[in-house]
Amino acid sequence: xxxxxxxxxxxxxxxxxxxxxxxxxxxxxxxxxxxxxxxxxxxxxxxxxxxxxxxxxxxxxxxxxxxxxxxxxxxxxxxxxxxxxxxxxxxxxxxxxxxxxxxxxxxxxxxxxxxxxxxxxxxxxxxxxxxxxxxxxxxx
Length: 140
Description:
This protein is mainly alpha-helical. It has seven helices and no strands. The chain has helices at residues 25-32, 39-47, 62-72, 82-87, 90-93, 101-119, 131-138. Helix 2 packs across helix 3 (62-72). The longest helix has 19 residues, at 101-119. The two termini are 34 Å apart.
């Protein structure tokens, strides 16, 4: 079964909780696992809430804000770049409409956890060089 693509970016006056279940990021993660979600959907889960309408700007869902972050920090080629979000200071994230200090801090914290996981040393493992060591390791 191939994962369904996430819905296209949209500036929707509707909160994610009003979307069909199969389009909601949290429900997609529960059903398909985190690898099936786009960067935008994962960021939306971290951001959690959208922003209210104001200043001539419509209300935006967490998915809209996640898309705005990815667009604001896209690579020169236009490709999404989580690395550029990681490298940006908190103040730069806060320049994206709807992203305040709390949301920016949550995004930076989650991406920092990912960075730390990638740097964490893997435990030493015994090399299985013979059939006998393989059999022993499997408990046969």
